[in-house]
Each structure stands twice: as structure tokens, then as C-alpha cells.
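Aim 2 progress. For AB hydrolase-1 domain-containing protein, the working sequence is reproduced below.
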Amino acid sequence: MGNSLICRAKKDTRENGSRSKRMGRSQRKMLAEEEFLHKQALSMALHQHQLSQRFDGSMSRRIGSTSSRRHTDPLANNEKKVLESLEKIKFKKIILLHGEGFGAWCWYKTIAHLEEVGLQPTALDLTGSGIDLTDTNTVTTLAEYSQPLIKYLENLPEDEKVTLVGHSSGGACLSYALEHFPEKISKAIYLCATMVSNGQRPFDVFAEELGSAERFMQESQFLIHGNGKDKPPTGFMFEKQLMKGLYFNQSPTKDVALAMVSMRSTPLGPIMEKLSLTPEKYGAGRRFYIQTLDDRALSPDVQEKLVRENPPEGVFKIKGSDHCPFFSKPQSLHKILIEIVQIP
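Predicted C-alpha cells for this construct:
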């Protein structure tokens, strides 16, 4: 009797163990299937998000509709028209020039989007900026600072033209190029930039925020004396917290973090140089200006003054953008750039 109970108990234990193993395998299989379906759903959602974000972040489309009816998507039609229009454009090359302290890296969103629509963007590192290894303390003139752009334009085929986009103090490089290479520039787009008049310095545009050039040279705590304290300053760089407040008051935190580890000092000579601009060359160029309306580095009032005193062919505005719309309002910026490129 006792042995019979023991045997039955052992048999029950084996059966329970076997059942437990079968249930474990079954549960693991179910979990694996659920995980696969979850990943598949994420993949579909990501793919759909990328499609819908191509031109407008608010655009949405239904997935897996069981309806056999076809719906006309006006946004898709508009996208098709834009692509067809861009396909007909003769000059598709766009050169992107950064502002003070930045580098080609700041245009990463802009490059991706412009390439998606068939344009050919190129972002340049100006001398001593980005990954260009030149010591900024040795860059003393606007011509030296603009050398990467000058070389690019010099090597451009005779039958080619480009659209230039300049951000902030990079606008001075646009003006320099319009004066020296007018035949190679299709359009010049100033993005909250230093669009100065003849005889002005790029620094003069920032005078309201930073004070006069003379005062800045004497008193600013942000100056760099690369040749020694007893010699004139050679560059400047703002303290990080100040930069965040001036440049990035509306930008995503990830882009701000990228900027904080990537920005370099700016050579002082080029922005203190007075530009010589003539009506025959610079004045004949096709200039456009993009204003940023929540800008603390170059206030909307200052930008309005620039376009009033030195009128461009067209003016565009980005609401809610700080001084870096390629971070804070990329979709709005890209639409405006595409619109300007399409202007006959």
C-alpha cells in the first residue's frame, strides 16, 4: 500500500513536470510570437511615419484599411507637383554656409530633406570651423575665412550656377561671393543673417545686442587673445549658458547638446572687416531673406531693419523659430528653401 502511494506520487510528479515543461514551451512560443508581431507593428509604424514626415509633420495616412475605395490625398498630389517642378530646375546645387561658431554639421537635417526631393546640397566648413583644422587665431580676413567657398566657386564649371544659403554671420560670405563671383550664383538666401550694405561690417548687425565694435573689442569677456594678452584679440566664443539663451531658446535638447560639443571659437577679423559692395555685382544679385521671429541673437526688429535698408527680392518669415531654424523649425525652413529654389 505504502509502495503504491509512493509510485503514484512519483508518477504524478513526472506528469506535472512534463506538463509544466509543455506549458513553459508554449508560453515561450506565445511570447516570441507576440514579440515578433510587436516588432512588425513598430516597423510598419516607423515606415509610415517616415512617409508621412517627408513634407509635413502633421500629415497622416491610414494603414491597413479594409475599404476598397481609393481616396485622393491632396498632400500627396502636392508633393508630386513639387517633385515634378524641382525635376525641371536647371541648377540644383545648394551650398549651405554656417554662422559663427557652427560648422557644416549644423545642416544635417537640411541636407537630408533637400536630398530627398532631388536637390544637391553641400555644406561647407568655413576656414577654422567644423572639422577644418586651421587655427582660428590665424584667420584675419573675410577672404581667408571664405576660402572653402571661394575654391568651390572657382572650380565650378562655367555653365553651372549654385544657390547659396548663409546663416547668421555666414551672410557676409554670401555678400563677398556675390561681389566676386556674381556669374556663378543663381540666388543668395540670407537666413537670419548679416546682409550688410556697402561699407558695413558684419559685426555692425549685432551692435544692438553686443554694443559697438569698439566697446566689444575693449570690454568683452568673450574675446580670445591668441597672440598674447598684450596683442589685439583674434577671436571670440560665448559661454555655453549664454549661447543656449541666445541661439537655442526653441531648439530640441538633443540638437543643443550636439551644438555644445561641436561649436568652436569664431575668428574676429572677418566680422570686423568692412565690405566693399558694388551695385553692378552685389547689387545685381538675386537676394532673399528668411526672418526668424523668436530670435534672441538677431532680433526680429534688427532683421526687419536689414531688409528695409537693403531690400532683397523676397522676404520670408518663420514663426516660433530661434536663431537656428535648421534645429527649431526644420520643416518650415525646408519648405521655404524649396519655394525659393523654384522661383523662376
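DSSP finds 14 helices and nine strands in the chain. This observation will guide construct design in the next reporting period.
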